[in-house]
Automatic annotation (TrEMBL), chain A:
<dbReference type="InterPro" id="IPR015855">
    <property type="entry name" value="ABC_transpr_MalK-like"/>
</dbReference>
<dbReference type="InterPro" id="IPR040582">
    <property type="entry name" value="OB_MalK-like"/>
</dbReference>
<keyword id="KW-0547">Nucleotide-binding</keyword>
<keyword id="KW-0813">Transport</keyword>
<dbReference type="InterPro" id="IPR047641">
    <property type="entry name" value="ABC_transpr_MalK/UgpC-like"/>
</dbReference>
<dbReference type="InterPro" id="IPR017871">
    <property type="entry name" value="ABC_transporter-like_CS"/>
</dbReference>
<dbReference type="GO" id="GO:0008643">
    <property type="term" value="P:carbohydrate transport"/>
</dbReference>
<dbReference type="InterPro" id="IPR012340">
    <property type="entry name" value="NA-bd_OB-fold"/>
</dbReference>
<dbReference type="GO" id="GO:0055052">
    <property type="term" value="C:ATP-binding cassette (ABC) transporter complex, substrate-binding subunit-containing"/>
</dbReference>
Automatic annotation (TrEMBL), chain B:
<keyword id="KW-1003">Cell membrane</keyword>
<feature type="transmembrane region" description="Helical">
    <location>
        <begin position="256"/>
        <end position="277"/>
    </location>
</feature>
<dbReference type="Pfam" id="PF00528">
    <property type="entry name" value="BPD_transp_1"/>
</dbReference>
<protein>
    <recommendedName>
        <fullName>Maltose/maltodextrin transport system permease protein MalG</fullName>
    </recommendedName>
</protein>
<keyword id="KW-0472">Membrane</keyword>
<keyword id="KW-0813">Transport</keyword>
<feature type="domain" description="ABC transmembrane type-1">
    <location>
        <begin position="80"/>
        <end position="330"/>
    </location>
</feature>
<keyword id="KW-1133">Transmembrane helix</keyword>
<feature type="transmembrane region" description="Helical">
    <location>
        <begin position="137"/>
        <end position="159"/>
    </location>
</feature>
Length: 359, 344
């Protein structure tokens, strides 16, 4: 129940810089998800907050408390690991209460905390079992129970659902989200799964190569990606990128398409010789009636039920379109697709940054 | 983990596998059986050619066992007690300290300047030579030189010295290197060292302390080497979970890490105990009457009155059976699967 502030935090292993000049202010009771491809530094950042890695530079604060040099045990955070990390020789009850007993908590308090955690996490029937007698989801709930009784200032989750199967993952996602609502604590959560990030977070921090690409609430990330990386990372299937040029308010694609850009999508007078037009598969129009049209050579058709994905090429780039399920398309067809002008994103290909929007 | 079962082989392949296993079982078990039946033979039966089945092709006699237990051929009970006391203490001490060292080497990063190690060697050896040249007694000289060398190298080890740094792998190699030369190389040196201790008033040869310390020193490298592998196989997250939970390091080691490596610990203890139990060379050099161990007793059966195979067999069995008991007792601890459920 506290803010977590990272100021100019950096981390290097020997000569390799993993994190440089990292700044993030996590609000009290906020659920923040760090997301990014593997090796982007998200787990290292989490481990620095926990104290399992020492920051090479910068300051980490819990509330007003500077914890940068503090050892992990003194920071009062609780961590849940990807592989659960339960004590294999202890029962569920012992696993949950071990930390409290070590810290010398009175027996009555220990009992109450255990009962409370077991009730919240539906672990009551399993308290006397060893971890090896539990399913993956139950094990992860024990790990969360161990974190609960710590009554920490901040919860840290390191890819806690990655080892679970898809169905259980969706259930646990809801459980953790609900737990956050009930406990009202600060949570920092690391995942490589953008769907997990989008569905759980109050705020998503997209990381790449040790830097923050964008930190915003899920809808803003989706609707207003700040750069090509975020645009491509958030959303499934990924956004399509058409290379081209912008001149006098008109986009001319490398594949030959050309259309005027609505003024609210691009500030007037913005010219860019090497630009990228981004359009999400779900923003392909059912009827290619407007001025923005591309020709797609279809390679694969993926019927998903509610709609169909049409994967193919536009010019030299891969292009995926989401079309109504009823549409009949076969591989090797060349089809004309309309783009929703109000949902287009324009980026500078050289910097990767989004081009300024008009009002 | 089950890789496959015998059922997946065809009948012919299965026959080969079973035949091979039985053949190997015969190779390993027959000497044991031979020792056992020989212990019930007397001179007349033995010189009369090989016989295999008691009561069928020879009439067993228990005189070998009577001689053993009545002490006609050396005090078996005393040697058995010596072997047990020295073996268990050396194995316990070596496993205890070796395990702690191995944990440190598995979980913490050490950086020792090579210069600090060199300084130790130069001061220890040079100091000893110089001090004895100056007329100091050998015992005093070696104690002083060693103490100064140790203190200096500890101080130097914490300084930023130029030159290469030795890491954990180098420390492990240094441990293992102590077992790379034949033990006889150090046996003489150790005997001379113990004699010097004796002259200075600390009797080390033929004492409990002397023999145990020697065995601890020789078992430590194996313990460190084996246990480090067991520790490195543990997922660090389990310990990290405890660290975040503010559990002190010693409790993590004793209450979380040790239970997780219990099979490895039992196996390592077993190997150490077996090494000390069977050790002959150092026992021969460093003991004479008070602290003789079982291997010495077994070997002495040959030298006294020619080859008396029944006596040798009874002594050998006396040495084998306790170890079989220990294996049986510790075997259940060695079963793997303790880690199940901790991580995915």
């Amino acid at each position: 129940m506290t803010q977590v502030t990272l100021e100019n935090v950096s981390k290097s292993f020997n000569e390799t810089v993993v994190i440089s000049d990292f700044n993030l202010a996590i609000e009290n009771k906020e659920f923040v998800v760090l997301v990014g491809p593997s090796g982007c530094g998200k787990t290292t950042t989490l481990r620095m907050i926990a104290g399992l890695e020492q920051a090479s530079g910068g300051v980490i604060r819990f509330g007003e408390r500077d914890v940068t040099g503090l050892r992990p045990g003194k920071r009062n955070c609780a961590m849940v690991f990807q592989n659960y990390a339960l004590y294999p020789h202890m029962t569920v009850a012992q696993n949950i209460t071990y930390g409290m007993r070590v810290r010398g908590a009175p027996e009555a308090e220990v009992k109450e905390a255990l009962a409370n955690a077991a009730r919240i996490l539906d672990l009551e029937p399993y308290l006397d079992r060893l971890p090896k007698k539990l399913s993956g989801g139950q094990r992860q709930r024990v790990a969360i129970g161990r974190a609960l009784v710590r009554k920490p200032d901040v919860y840290l989750f390191d890819e806690p659902l990655s080892n679970l199967d898809a169905k259980l993952r969706i259930e646990m996602r809801v459980e953790i989200r609900d737990l956050h609502r009930r406990l009202g604590t600060t949570i920092v959560y690391v995942t490589h799964d953008q769907v997990e990030a989008m569905t759980m977070a109050d705020r998503v921090v997209v990381m790449n190569e040790g830097r923050i690409e964008q930190a915003a609430d899920p809808i803003t990330l989706y609707r207003e990606p700040a750069n090509l990386f975020v645009a491509g990372f958030i959303g499934a299937p990924s956004m399509n990128f058409l290379p081209g040029a912008i001149s006098q308010g008109t986009f001319t694609g490398a594949d030959g398409c050309s259309f005027p850009i609505p003024p609210q999508r691009l500030a007037s007078g913005t010219d860019c010789a090497k630009a990228v037009c981004g359009v999400r598969p779900e923003h392909i129009l059912a009827e290619a009636s407007g001025p923005a049209k591309v020709k797609q050579k279809v390679k694969v058709v993926e019927p998903l039920g509610p709609h169909t994905l049409q994967v193919g090429m536009v010019g030299d780039v891969q292009f995926t379109a989401q079309v109504p399920a009823a549409r009949k398309v076969s591989p090797d067809d060349v089809v004309e697709l309309g783009l929703d002008l109000d949902e287009l994103h324009f980026f500078d290909a050289a910097t990767g940054k989004v081009l300024p929007k008009g009002s | 983990m089950r890789i496959g079962s015998a059922a997946q082989f065809g009948p012919v392949a299965r026959g080969f596998v079973i035949g091979g296993v039985l053949a190997w079982a015969f190779v390993t078990l027959f000497p044991f059986y031979w020792t056992f039946v020989t212990s019930f033979k007397n001179l007349r039966i033995i010189v009369g050619g090989p016989t295999y089945f008691p009561f069928i092709d020879f009439q067993p006699s228990v005189h070998g066992w009577v001689e053993l237990f009545t002490g006609v051929r050396g005090n078996m009970f005393k040697n058995l007690a010596n072997s047990t006391i020295v073996g268990v203490s050396a194995a316990v001490v070596a496993t205890l300290f070796g395990t702690m060292a191995a944990y440190a080497l598995a979980r913490y990063r050490f950086r020792v300047p090579l210069l600090a190690g060199l300084a130790f060697a130069v001061i220890a050896i040079g100091g000893y030579v110089a001090l004895t040249e100056l007329g100091m007694g050998r015992f005093g000289a070696i104690s002083l030189a060693f103490a100064v060398a140790l203190a200096t190298s500890i101080v130097l080890g914490n300084l930023k010295l130029p030159g290469p740094l030795l890491g954990n792998e180098d420390i492990i190699f240094w441990f293992i290197s102590q077992r790379m030369f034949p033990p006889i190389v150090s046996a003489f040196a150790l005997f001379l060292l113990y004699s010097e201790f004796g002259k200075a008033g600390f009797k080390m040869t033929d004492t409990y302390l002397g023999l145990t310390l020697c065995y601890v020193a020789f078992s430590l490298p194996i313990v460190v080497w084996l246990m480090r592998d067991f520790f490195e196989a543990l997922p660090p997250e389990v310990e990290e979970a405890a660290i975040v939970d503010d559990v002190p390091v010693w409790r993590i080691f004793l209450q979380i890490v040790l239970p997780m490596v219990m099979p490895g610990l039992a196996a390592t203890f077993m190997i150490t105990l077996a090494f000390v139990w069977n050790e002959y060379l150092f026992a021969l050099f460093l003991t004479n009457t008070q602290w003789q161990t079982l291997p010495i007793l077994v070997a002495s059966q040959i030298s006294q009155r020619g080859d008396e195979w029944w006596a040798l067999s009874t002594a050998a069995l006396t040495a084998i059976v306790p170890m079989m008991l220990v294996v049986w007792l510790l075997g259940r601890l060695m079963r793997s699967g303790l880690m199940l459920g901790s991580i995915k």
